[in-house]
Amino acid sequence: MPSIPFSPPRFSALPQFSLARRLPSTPTRFASTGSSVRFDWADALQFGSIDDEEPLDLSGFFQRVSVCNRGSEKKDEFMPFLIDNQIAGYTHKAFTKHLSKHNDVFHIVKDKNGEGKIGEHLRFNPSLKSYEARTEAVAHVIKCLGNLIPGIRNELYPVTLAFGVPPFFSLERAAAPYFGIKAYGVHMNGYVEIDSEKFLWVAKRSEDKPTFPGMLDHIVAGGLPHGISCKKNIIKECEEEAGIPASISTKYIDPDCEGYLQLLQSLRSSDCT
């Protein structure tokens, strides 16, 4: 996640922020160059090699991971969504019943003999082979479903097997959880330096937000739509969510802000995964 080393700009449109979680000012962990302070991968790797004398308590983090992974006992309530013989998502069987009414777009394939490895699953109608045809057909189905999928955003997410892989089709953002697809986003943290000490710059969500109103958050975060890079998206979100204009965000966001994703791709292709 990119960090922005500058003092908070004074904009009337800027949401409420707070300075919290003072960061250590140890020179070996935060390298200074003149008046500019940076936190890069070298610093991140140093944090990953904590000495025994400096135990890192990650119990709270792992508790959150456990919460995110809850509900495994309900996996039988879902069926795989296969595209080109690959699992692209999972749909709840109750939701799948609504999709089955649109058999010009979706088919439910049943494993009558119980011998298949996947079993009952959802597929596209075989006539829908191209990205464009699938995107258009699914958009029509979602429109027909009406209030069954609330909060339509008119923003498309790519439906793909992994980040950077060509998508099978694009899907309305609000419908992504209903199809159980992989979705991606951008998150930006920042810090400020006050009297030679460093503080995380913590944002507070608007009370008018439909999700998690009034709670603490990253400075900027947002879903990654189809057809836009991580860097361009974070610059766009800076202006939309925090009133930070492109004249500032383009200056301070590191051009290598996608390095984290490149690292993940390298790990995925190596023997480490």
From TrEMBL:
Residues 61-183 form the DUF4743 domain. It holds the Pfam family DUF4743. GO terms for molecular function: 8-oxo-dGDP phosphatase activity. The keyword Cell cycle does not apply. The keyword Nucleotide-binding does not apply. Keywords: Hydrolase. InterPro entries: DUF4743, NUDIX_hydrolase-like_dom_sf. PANTHER family: THIAMIN PYROPHOSPHOKINASE, THIAMIN PYROPHOSPHOKINASE 1. This is Nudix hydrolase 20.
